[in-house]
Amino acid sequence: PENTVDQEIGEVTAIDPVNKTDNGFKFYLIGSSDKFSVDTNTGKISVLKGANLDIEVQEIYSLTIQARGPTSSGVAHQVIQLTDVNDNIPIFSSTQYIVDVTENFLFGNNLAPIVKVVATDADKTAANRNIKYTLSINPENKFTINSNGEIKTTTKFDRENKNSYTLQVTA
Description:
The chain has one helix spanning 126-129; strands at 7-11, 26-30, 36-38, 44-47, 60-68, 73-81, 91-92, 115-116, 119-120, 134-137, 143-145, 150-153, 168-170.
């Protein structure tokens, strides 16, 4: 998974074609890598400390590893494909929405929304980009929000009784 650090993620092995054993091989990463290392004695592939594996930046890495034995050597190509984790929070297109509504505005779920809020999520997979809107502050439960971010009223307003409402939407 992305964001993995200082952890073993795989291993390469080698068999000497002459003596049919895996004894005596040393493993070397060909080229430089600031994300991965290969243990010279075991062939274990690890993510380096401080490596930032982020699928939204790079999804696939290709490593070339050389095995050198007493009588032979060879090269292996290792492809590392990251899996997405839900590591990005939704970001609203605006930090504040200000809406004026007349006190005789028609209310109900079948009517037009008074405002639509929009948030996006940078995660790679659709499952991790799925946004659910909720009203975390909803005075007197006079408002509803649907899965598209549309806010509607549930009742008529009386300006003389209360002239403004502050809502908080969480995504």
